[in-house]
Amino acid sequence: MPLGFNGDCILLEASCSACAAITSKFETVVLRDTLFAARAAVGAKTRHKKRDEKRSMYIIKDGKEQVIEAHWKDHWKVIPLPVFKPPASLDGRDYKSGLEADRMDFGWVGESPQEIAKLHNADDVLFKIRKPIEVAYAFAKLIAKIAYGNVVLNFGLGGIKHAFVIPAILGESDDIGRWVGCDGKRMMASSYNLWHTKVEVVSGMYVARIKLFAKANGTEYLAVVGSVNESTQGLLHSLGYRGA
After folding, report:
1. Residue 149 is part of which domain span?
2. Domain-embedded: residue 86
3. Can you spell out the DSSP letters for 41-104?
4. pLDDT tens across 41-73, in order?
5. Residue 115 resides in a domain
């Protein structure tokens, strides 16, 4: 889990500098560009010292759309979560490439949009994504990275026979929709502050379920991380992972 979501575990030497640069780019799109106000509101950690700078926000005033600059405390702390089709590797649909997003699931932290609009003497507030496709892919890759990290943390690199998500995370393949998606279910506890994760074994594959901003009880994500190493299957059976 990234530092920006208050991740509390570190995988030492988890990636080389070249891969770290790739993952840092899509993490920035999600953590700093899309969720900056919501993360600030819940006290999420940051490596950047620009959190107190004013950022752009869209409002409707006198029937016209306007852009204003405001401190994060005065922003609508919106939580936009892309909703994807299920991972194609699980539902068996005809899939060729890319990512299929149905809609956005919106929540927020703190004040309602109406309260934020009133604060700025506006009629309403808007949330606009300038590059929705880029944001959707960044979310999917971040989910894949979180899922992969959780599997490594719990079962070690040796427990994975083949990591399906690595090429998609690094942009070496355009098949993120085969491994990452949503199933429309909300099964995880909403008592957690920022996130909740769980790894299951389904038909010999590690499948992670991830919930971001858990208290907002928004969309849950699934990521098919990789196949189970044969040498690990006996251990998984003994631990109760019947799908191994």
Report:
1. 3-53+80-105+129-238
2. yes
3. HTT---S-S-TTS-EEEEEEETTEEEEEEE-GGGS-EEEEEEEEPPPHHHH-----SS--EEEE
4. 988 888 776 677 888 999 999 999 999 999 999
5. no
